[in-house]
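ZP: hey, is the iron/sulfur cluster complex queued? I don't see it on the tracker
AM: it wasn't, my bad. submitting now with these inputs:
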Amino acid sequence: MSVIIDHTCITCNACIEVCPVNAISDDSNNPLGNPYYYVHPEKCVECVGIHEDPQCAAICPSIGCITWDMPFTKEFNDHYVNGAAYKLGEKNGALRSPEFKQRKYREDIPLSLRGVGHPVQEEPEDDKAANG
Ligand code: SF4
Ligand code: SF4
């Protein structure tokens, strides 16, 4: 995927309108049945070649709701095929896993900054100070 939406999503619909590749489904179409928005990892390209940053995270009002995930590459095929946080789509009966088709990802974001707990959008410094 590359980016993942967690339960702190407030279903505001902002991200779905800015995603350039229609990789986001709303809560009523979340393939896992969760009551919040979902990024289809097999579609997300981390906005590479289109925008400077992931647009979903740039517009999301719930700071920290969208976190980096692993690159959608063959190296992480098992991560996406077996992960409980995803339900990959199919094409002509084939699972749309990284082995089926890899996706672009931001090579400047190291693996050490990817995974649960690594938000794409940081809380602004001023807000951090205000929140103590
Ligand atoms: S990072 Fe870009 S391509 Fe991926 S879901 Fe967000 S807006 Fe869509
Ligand atoms: S912009 Fe953020 S809070 Fe709004 S629907 Fe998308 S993930 Fe949820």
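AM: back. Strands lie at 3-5, 24-25, 38-39, 66-68, 90-91, 94-95.
ZP: great, adding it to the tracker
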